[in-house]
Amino acid sequence: RRLRHLRNIAARNIVNRNGHQLLDTYFTLHLCNTEKVYKEFYRSEVIKNSLNPTWRSLDFGIMPDRLDTSVSCFVVKIWGGKEDVYQLLIEWKVCLDGLKYLGQQIHARNQNEIIFGLNDGYYGAPFEHK
């Protein structure tokens, strides 16, 4: 599985630590290597007033021309806030080959769960969060 197979991203059960009932959220994607996380190459739209956002399908047309979409590891950062004041909520280095198949629909049981929609269904972390 490669970055080019990624269709969309959703987050479920976001833990909100800033006192608001609901948050406005967006995500950024970053290439990475073992030592470094690079500048974002993709930024989603903002979803208003949700702790369970499902963002629009990724638009590879707006990504940089020379972006290597054959990579299978990258960093996803989920940002949340209100009135254009955002803070980092979740940061995860994702290796698509290590994700567990969840099925054809989004099912989430854990806090701060990130779900990746690929060509053949939805995938998530291979372990139970405690």
TrEMBL record:
This is UVRAG. Residues 1-110 form the C2 domain. It comes from Cervus elaphus hippelaphus. Coiled coil: none annotated. The lineage of its organism: Eukaryota, Metazoa, Chordata, Craniata, Vertebrata. InterPro entries: C2_dom, C2_domain_sf. PROSITE patterns: C2. It holds the Pfam family C2.
